[in-house]
Amino acid sequence: MLIKSNASGVEHVPPSEITPKTIYEDRRGALKRLALGVSSGPLAALSSGHVHGQTSQVYPSPGKLTPLAARVATLDGGVTMEKPTAYKDASTYNNFYEFGTDKADPSRNAHTLVTSPWSVDVEGLVKRPGRWALEDLLRLSSLEERIYRLRCVEGWSMVIPWVGYSLAELIKRVEPQGSAKFVEFVTLADAKTMPLVGSRVLDWPYVEGLRMDEAMHPLTLLTFGMYGEVLPNQSGAPVRLVVPWKYGFKSAKSIVKIRFTDRQPATAWNKAAANEYGFYSNVNPAVDHPRWSQATERRIGEDGLFSKKRKTLMFNGYENQVGQLYAGMDLKKLY
Amino acid sequence: MNQWLLHRSTKSVVFFLGCLPVLWLGVAAWSDQLGANPAEALVRSTGDWTLRILCVVLSITPLRVTFKISALARFRRMLGLFVYFYVVVHFLAYAWLDMGFELIDVGSDLAKRPFIFVGFACLMLLTPLAATSFSRAIKWLGGDRWQMLHRLVYVVAVLALVHFFWMRAGKNNFNEVFVYAAIVAMLLGWRIRNASK
């Protein structure tokens, strides 16, 4: 083995590889805050004090909705160290077409959504089908805080602290049959409270789906809250999915039905424009959408107006965790 | 109406009105009033204003003829130049805020995304019109040739609609596009009918 050394016999790290002190200190601060956590109040009405835990508090808690405490996730990829997007931006810049196609529409219009009582039907190729009341879903497993990157197909991104648990926990509980290959998520379509249901913008209800192994992946989060509180309506209250390595539209909001099937589900965007929205829709900088380049993305709320866009990462940066799910697949064809 | 429009100050008033959108956007950007994605808001709204002023320009002749308000012609050139101004600002906002002024990125984006290419074509087609907007240019070119050249604005109007439609396609959200398309169709339809009389 060749060992390079200089005259003094000390191998110096090139200056470019030295982490600047400010970043180093800030990371330590963030880690310390994560490790210590801040004990927070019980999850008031929803869990009747069942769930206690610690939140990371790397972001200011908005204090607008019912607190939803959770312990910080420890799984690989579960907590990115990137700076969370401001709650104000994350809760006012949304795609939720049932409430309007402009990004500001959902936060303006979604107050009509009735989130209680709420239940989720589990059906299809499963040994234990049935109806889950939201309260029972919340009690099914302990809540975790996951700080994920979110990448929208339109070329913008955020960093959001979600609260929930791996969808796998629910799947294991309902015991899918061997023939179940896909999971379909059907979301609420209530023309009375959702102004665009009935329009021709999409074929309602909104349907999304995952392959079974994607649904079972620990990073796939059944989500009840964000920023230490229950989800605001425009973000998919009271229960939604978050699949961090796929474009945002794969993460269905306000779910009312979870169905296990042996066939690839006909998903809403795929039905609307199959050439633009594939079933998989994994974040992939090499496969462009006809109107949005996927090579770069704008992180919402980052620096100033003239800050450069950042390069998009394969699988939204979760390649180490999920890359093996797609081994041998042509992701240009199966986008 | 004619008397009133012929007043000395009306051109300054129209000029001020034409500047209002860009002034307002500037103030809004400065004071962080453009929402979570100010870059997107700037690119979109400068595009909207281009299309709106284009519709105003195209409505001058039909209004002038139908209601016999000859004085409207005084504002046509200035408003035409405002269309060019807003399309340039729209392009610069895209090239700067979206592409970080990386010309290579802009070039590959033009080749990659047809709707961007169509928008860029509008800018290119409007450039000779803006460049020949002064009175001497009419003399140099001769009235007929000048007019032929400036009929390119009809092509631009249609391409601008294609650009807008394409941007909204796939999101299936065409309401606004249809409003502009209806206005442009009316204004161009009037010309076709008028010419065949």
Describe this structure as you would to a colleague:
The complex is a heterodimer of chains A (335) and B (197). With 335 residues, chain A is of the alpha+beta class. Chain A has one domain (71-326): Sulfite Oxidase, Chain A, domain 2 (Alpha-Beta Complex). Chain A is built from nine helices and 15 strands. Chain A has helices spanning 21-36, 44-47, 87-90, 105-109, 134-140, 167-174, 212-216, 268-272, 319-322, and strands at residues 38-39, 54-55, 71-72, 119-124, 130-133, 144-151, 156-166, 182-187, 207-211, 221-226, 229-230, 240-242, 255-261, 296-299, 310-311. In chain A, strands 3, 6, 7, 10, 11, 12, 14 and 15 form an eight-stranded mixed beta sheet that branches. Chain A has a five-stranded mixed beta sheet with strand order 5-4-13-8-9. A two-stranded antiparallel sheet of chain A has the order 1-2. Mean pLDDT of chain A is 87; it is low at 1-11, 20-25 and 27-53. Chain B has one domain (37-58, 80-195). Helices cover 81% and strands 0% of the residues of chain B. The mean pLDDT of chain B is 94. With 197 residues, chain B is an all-alpha fold. Chain B is globular and about 45 Å long. The longest helix of chain B has 29 residues, at 38-66. Chain B starts with a helix and ends with a helix. Classes of the chains: A alpha+beta (335), B mainly alpha (197). The A-B interface holds A 88-89, 92-93, 101, 103-104, 156, 200-202, 272-273, 276-277, 288, 290-291, 293, 298, 300-301, 305-306, 308-309 and B 29, 35-40, 42, 96-98, 100, 109, 112-115, 166-167, 169-173.
